[in-house]
Amino acid sequence: MNIFRLAGDMTHLISVLVLLLKIYATKSCSGISLKTQELYAMVFVARYLDLFTDYISFYNTVMKIVFILSSLAIVWCMRMHRVVKRSYDKELDTFRHNILIVVCFGVAVIINEKFTLREVFWAFSIYLEAVAILPQLVLLQRSGNVDNLTGQYVFLLGGYRAFYILNWIYRYFVEQRFSRWISAISGLIQTALYADFFYYYFLSWKNNAKLHLPA
Amino acid sequence: SSADDIKDEL
After folding, report:
1. Sequence-ordered alpha helix ranges (H) in chain A
2. ipTM greater than 0.90
3. Cα separation, A193 vs A39, whole angstroms
4. A70 CB contacts (<8 Å, ≥6 apart)?
5. Are the Cβ atoms of A63 and B8 closer than 8 angstroms?
6. What does the alpha-carbon distance between residue A66 and residue A2 come to, in Å, rounded to a whole number?
7. I need a labelling partner for A197 at 20 to 30 A (CA). Which of A3, A55, A133, A147 fits?
8. How far is A56 from B9, CA to CA, in rounded Å?
């Protein structure tokens, strides 16, 4: 464990807590893409299949359980909670995320570290995570204005993978064997997808204006 | 081999 990875995990954890706070405090999920949340739930379930078979560390196990439970809780809230689901922007959240799922799985079957069920699902979760934010970014573009908590959520989510890139650079130089090309390349693509959001987020912060994404 | 290394990252 290095400081970059710890910072990344904490940023990721905070982003999920910010989202849960927004939904719980405002009893609203307006501006949040259910499709992105469903993709994240799939990412965690597909990636943490080894949760009960391989014990790596207490920290690792606790964080996996937190990520799986929180992502499922958010999806449940947005689908089933009678108050929250009313504020879901169903007509704006129209990204065809099923295509993302099929494509990522297809790529994972071709490009993986080892052609086993677990490695294919692991690669699938890595690729899916890279593109999971797309429905959310499209929804933000469509809805124009971004409320603070949702903006912070996306910003933190982008920051977490950026920290992980520093972690991979660190591990590349420190450890003799670097076998994380799938994660590193996919993580770069993932962070690049946030680039335009980061740009507008920084502008809104600099001009102390409300975050407004060009339609 | 790299595939056997435990995935210690989240």
Report:
1. 3-26, 34-47, 58-80, 97-110, 117-131, 134-143, 148-174, 181-193, 195-206
2. no
3. 16
4. A16, A17, A20
5. no
6. 20
7. A3
8. 10
**Beta carbons within 10 angstroms of residue A161's beta carbon:** 25
Q: What percent of chain A has pLDDT over 70?
A: 100
Phi first, then psi: what are they for A202, rounded to 5°? -65, -45
Q: Please name the residues in contact with B9: beta carbons below 8 A apart, sequence gap of 6 or more.
A: A5, A164, A167, A180, A183
* pLDDT per residue as tens digits for the range A75-93: 999 999 999 999 999 999 9
Instruction: Choose from A43, A125, A161, A180 for mutation: most chain B CBs within 10 A.
Output: A180
The answer to whether A114 contacts B10, with C-beta atoms less than 8 Å apart, is no
What is the rounded CA–CA span in Å between residue A111 and residue A119?
A: 10
Neighbours of A48 (CB within 10 A): 22
Q: Which residue has the tokens 């990344």?
A: A8
| Over residues A41-64, mean pLDDT | 95
